[in-house]
Specification:
368 residues, Aspartate Aminotransferase, domain 2, 3-stranded antiparallel β-sheet, DegT/StrS_aminotransferase, 13 helices, 7-stranded mixed β-sheet, globular, DegT/DnrJ/EryC1/StrS family aminotransferase
Amino acid sequence: MIPVLDLKREYLELKTEIDAAVERVLASGGFVGGPEVAALEAELSDYLKVPYVITCGSGTDALVIALRAMGLGPGDEVITTPFTFIATLEAIQHVGARPVLVDIDPRNFNLDPALLEAALTPRTRAILPVHLYGQVAPMGELLDFAQKHGLQVLEDAAQAIGARYCAPGQPPAQAGTLGDAGAFSLYPTKNLGAYGDGGFIATHNPAIAEEARLLAVHGSKERYHHVRPAGYTSRLDALQAAILRVKLPHLETWNTRRRQIAQIYNEHLKNHLQTPCEMPYALHVYHQYTVRHPERDRLAAHLKQQGIGSSVHYPLPAHLQPAYRDLAPEGSLPAAEAAAREVLSLPMHPFLEEAQLEAVIRAVQSYA
């Protein structure tokens, strides 16, 4: 079976460096915070070209803590997408705010800016776009709308580290650095993944950074001195930081290889199904290579018979999940609902071999 993702292969490629990093931390006797975490934060800050990076326990924690650090809370509304991993909505609810769902652009699966105005109410305080599958949302239009209406913007960049937004006449900007803050996941399956849970917040805003750092460690600025109520235990451990420091220098090369694989898929599959649409403003890093087909489930079964793995991201939009049916009625977000019926993610990782690529392509092409 050719898997969608091959984390073992990634480890074997870096085994000597990763083993040495793990041994270094074990020998140090320091496992929570410390110099490895501080060094990773500095290296991420340099990579993203953003002054503040605050690591935390997961991508979900990054969203929750960022929302609180931005001042979002009970009575507030946050506009977001129904077509995302459920953590996006959970985070909004965890701070006491209400998610307001806006449908997606079917070309790129991200928030459709043309639909924002209809979702605006006197309680709207923020927009939470998701850079789905590794492609940045239409940040120019979203930021213009936010500025016009006095809203904050938190980017869910869990799937998009290294993706760029390419505004005309400006240098490309990293996903997660355009709004008031960006929340990133370091889950093992991500383009930059730890060997456990992890996440971080990136921001240009010193007040948000200071508040996020307080909240992530029990609301404390120093040990046993707590200045914020209801803080969190949300820390990245030194082992994960050391592993991520080994991986980070390879990220651009890996993302470039993902783009090369996507181009090969596009060339050979464009007449057989709907391949991803890379928007003119976006540099896509293909966390997932997600196609559309009206017979998605039958295609997935055919691929399985041919020894090809696939996955569905996501089989239900948020408003059709049992826990979230109060947010919007069925049929009210048709683009997201149609996408959930048709999307399929094919094998995508930097270590796919040519023979594996050819096998995936043949299997898709052979579907009648």
